[in-house]
Amino acid sequence: MALPARYKLVFFCPPTALPAIKTAIFSAGAGCYPGPGNYTECCFTTPGVGQFRPGDAANPNIGERGKLEEVGEVKCETLCVGRDVAVKAVEALKGAHPYEEPAYEVYKIEDL
């Protein structure tokens, strides 16, 4: 029997926004590992520095239009089992994230 496709959701956010975003994506089904342990709300977070320059039409949550910004952010990675869970988690991420344009990536995981 084939297992559902697995996806890795990776996103970047201010550290203060992380708890609300995690609550939203976990409520959408992200962070669950299949298997007998029934692990939920699993993720890995690393700190870093994000850089961006808001354009003329931007409405930035942090910084000013036209000014280069460097801000402390965190990178959070989690598993989504099934494409539907990945889609719901991205929708939840966008709804909970404070940025005008959240930075995120979704990767399909291969079974080897």
From TrEMBL:
<dbReference type="InterPro" id="IPR015867">
    <property type="entry name" value="N-reg_PII/ATP_PRibTrfase_C"/>
</dbReference>
<protein>
    <recommendedName>
        <fullName>ATP phosphoribosyltransferase</fullName>
    </recommendedName>
</protein>
<dbReference type="InterPro" id="IPR036069">
    <property type="entry name" value="DUF34/NIF3_sf"/>
</dbReference>
